[in-house]
């Protein structure tokens, strides 16, 4: 007799091992890893190896739990500093951006597909949100380092826009099921929105504080901290969802509160969360791949690709541009944010809702959503790195340790074990004295582990291991780390010269012939750039001032600008600018220029009219005046 539970364990574990092993291939060829997991599900499904799975409610349940775990981890790894740096742009994209995307896709589907408005908007809502798992993987695990503000905006947006998409999809499904005779008063819609999003936000902040307080005060076995955190997170997700709130928003905010306020057991929690999130991502993508029936894609592939291309090339860019107008992102930054709008498992998961509600177009919507996700993963997921380089948003790597491990020592002392590889240009290799607080705990030389007294001063090729508090790592970098060699790309990015942030802005303006709108007085270069960029300048921020370009190179421990790069051939004017995505400053400047040209034109037109009037008057007087000969003739007569 066939043992179904054991068969289920056999199949699921085999798929899990296969997904993990094939990830090695994805890293080598640069394929989006989550696309690979989705492909494995399709490969072993009904149209592949023949494994049949068509239980939509079970798939939605597994996907919802996996998404809750992923969102909790997304918030857990988001620092308050990152969230505050991109709070308002991200919230605008996560709310207004999702609404605009839904409306734009809905209009196109209604006009081209002939569906009702509700059905068209439902499809738009299904594909309206970016996928947190895909975005976090590509930005954090994919090895791409981009400008801090852009990165923070994408991370926070991807983690916070799912609740809005879930709300819109569920609301539209309920409206379609209720029938056309049931209206949708705006007041009821807003009330539902405030109830779900507002209640979810309050519950997430309060619940996250409760989780952090619990793990900080309880004295548990180390292995129990991940268990209680996971249990409390899923408990809040279920309670808030049952109470009519947004459980997904709750777990995201709870994760952020826990990751920032928690102290007890945090290194273990981070490692546990990392592994559990990978498991959730693999499981969710595999189960959604199994649910799909690729043989049915042929009936709908044209519509799916049209929706995908419109979403990627029109709806998402237009929505992002309108949302980011007040926040003064550059054209390149806006273009990149619009391109990193990857659709993933969330869109497929939301497409299950119409199927569960027995909406006639439910299966077609699921297939279209699947095609949109595949297209997005292949086009956007494979091109994020080259697009970032083309737009000049890739930041050269910082100097830093080879490896960094967070440790929790008795007495709540949080330390990190950092390892440095000593190379020729390391300061300690050239004879720099090592302070007492920075002395290594272990030195590995030619494969031998040695005590510092036995090894003597570090040599080129050594690996040094140091236990230190996190606040000292920047200081250790300056002693043990290798300065990144300035290749041609770095010179283009950080300029040809490095200036001290304490240098006088007036002296720099005078030296390089820069005309400033007002006298800088005694303002330093660091203070001038901080004022220009706002209160939170980040590495890579840049500004063009006439013939030069200033770029933030190094940020100190107190977030003050320490060194500034200077380029005598600014990148921005010489590089071909994008003919779109003007920010608010450029629009204002363009309007001022147009107004100035219009005034000049008006003045020229008035001058021309006045000249024409004078000329006409002079000609008329000449015609009316009697000729001298005729006057003499009349006198003689």
In brief, what are we looking at here?
With 637 residues, the chain is of the alpha+beta class. The chain has 27 helices and nine strands. It has a five-stranded antiparallel sheet. Strands 6-9-8-7 form a four-stranded antiparallel sheet, sandwiched between helices.
Molecular structure report:
The protein has 637 residues and is α+β, with helices and mostly antiparallel strands. The chain has 4 domains: 337 residues, Na+/H+ antiporter like fold; 78 residues, Regulator of K+ conductance, C-terminal domain (Alpha-Beta Plaits); 87 residues, Uridine Diphospho-n-acetylenolpyruvylglucosamine Reductase, domain 3, CATH 3.30.465; 31 residues. 62% of the residues lie in helices and 8% in strands. The chain is built from 27 helices and 9 strands. The strands form 2 sheets. A 5-stranded antiparallel sheet has the order 1-2-5-3-4. A 4-stranded antiparallel sheet has the order 6-9-8-7, sandwiched between helices. It starts with a helix and ends with a helix. The C terminus is likely disordered. It is a multi-pass membrane protein. It comes from Microbaculum marinisediminis. It is found in: Cell membrane. One of its GO terms (cellular component) is plasma membrane.
N→C terminal distance: 144 Å
CA radius of gyration: 32 Å
Spans where pLDDT lies below 50 across 5 or more residues: 485-489, 628-637
Summarize the main sheet: 5 strands, antiparallel
What does the overall shape look like? Answer: globular
Strand order of the largest sheet: 1-2-5-3-4
Q: Remind me, CATH topology of the largest domain?
A: Na+/H+ antiporter like fold
The total beta strand count reads 9
CATH hierarchy class name of the largest domain: Mainly Alpha
The CATH architecture classification of the largest domain is Up-down Bundle
């Amino acid at each position: 007799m066939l043992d179904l539970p054991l068969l289920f364990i056999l199949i699921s574990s085999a798929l899990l091992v296969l997904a993990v092993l094939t990830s090695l291939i994805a890293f080598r060829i640069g394929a989006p890893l989550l696309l690979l997991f989705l492909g494995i599900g399709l490969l072993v499904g009904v149209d592949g190896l023949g494994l049949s799975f068509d239980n939509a409610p079970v798939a939605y349940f597994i996907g919802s739990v996996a998404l809750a775990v992923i969102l909790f981890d997304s918030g857990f790894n988001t620092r308050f500093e990152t969230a505050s740096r991109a709070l308002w742009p991200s919230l605008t994209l996560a709310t207004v951006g999702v609404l605009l995307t839904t409306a734009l896709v809905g209009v196109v589907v209604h006009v081209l597909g002939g569906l009702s408005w509700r059905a068209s908007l439902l499809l738009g809502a299904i594909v309206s949100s970016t996928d947190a798992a895909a975005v976090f993987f590509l930005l954090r695990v994919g090895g791409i380092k981009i400008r801090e503000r852009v990165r923070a905006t994408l991370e926070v947006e991807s983690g916070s826009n799912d609740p809005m998409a879930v709300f819109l999809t569920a609301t539209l499904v309920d409206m379609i099921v209720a029938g056309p005779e049931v209206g949708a008063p705006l007041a009821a819609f807003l009330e539902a929105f405030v109830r779900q999003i507002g209640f979810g936000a309050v519950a997430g902040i309060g619940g996250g504080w409760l989780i952090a307080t619990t793990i900080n005060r309880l004295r548990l076995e180390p292995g129990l901290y991940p268990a209680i955190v996971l249990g409390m997170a899923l408990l809040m997700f279920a309670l808030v969802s049952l109470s009519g709130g947004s459980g997904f928003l709750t777990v995201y905010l709870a994760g952020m509160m826990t990751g920032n306020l928690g102290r007890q057991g945090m290194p273990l929690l981070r490692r546990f969360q990392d592994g559990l999130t990978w498991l959730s991502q693999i499981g969710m993508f595999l189960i959604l791949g199994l649910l799909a029936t690729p043989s049915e894609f042929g009936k709908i592939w044209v519509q799916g690709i049209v929706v995908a291309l419109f979403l990627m090339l029109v709806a998402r860019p237009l929505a992002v541009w309108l949302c980011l107008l007040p926040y003064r992102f550059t054209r390149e930054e806006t273009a990149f944010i619009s391109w990193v709008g990857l659709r993933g498992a969330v869109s497929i998961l939301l497409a299950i809702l119409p199927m569960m509600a027995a909406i006639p177009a439910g299966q077609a919507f699921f297939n279209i959503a699947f095609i949109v996700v595949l297209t997005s993963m292949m086009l956007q997921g494979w091109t994020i790195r080259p697009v970032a380089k083309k737009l000049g948003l890739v930041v050269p790597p910082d100097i830093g340790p080879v490896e960094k491990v967070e440790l929790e020592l008795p007495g709540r002392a949080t330390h990190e074990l950092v390892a440095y590889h000593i190379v020729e240009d390391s300061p300690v290799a050239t004879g720099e004295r090592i302070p007492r607080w920075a002395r290594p705990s272990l030195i590995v030389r030619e494969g031998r582990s040695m005590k510092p007294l036995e090894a003597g001063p570090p040599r080129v090729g050594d690996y040094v291991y140091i236990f230190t508090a996190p606040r000292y790592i920047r200081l250790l970098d300056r002693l043990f780390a290798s300065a990144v060699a300035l290749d041609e790309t770095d010179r283009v990015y950080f300029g040809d010269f490095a200036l001290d942030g304490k240098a006088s802005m007036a002296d720099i303006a005078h030296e390089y012939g820069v005309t400033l709108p007002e006298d800088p007085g005694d303002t330093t270069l660091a203070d001038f750039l901080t004022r220009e960029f706002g209160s939170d300048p980040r590495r890579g921020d840049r500004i063009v001032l006439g013939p030069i370009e200033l770029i933030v190179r190094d940020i100190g421990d107190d977030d003050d600008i320490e060194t500034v790069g200077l380029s005598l051939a600014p990148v921005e004017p010489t590089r071909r600018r994008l003919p779109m995505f003007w920010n608010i400053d450029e629009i204002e400047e363009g309007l001022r220029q147009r107004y100035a040209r219009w005034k000049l034109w008006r003045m020229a037109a008035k001058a021309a009219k006045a000249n024409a009037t004078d000329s006409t008057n002079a000609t008329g007087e000449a015609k009316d005046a009697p000729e001298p000969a005729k006057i003499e003739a009349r006198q003689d007569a």
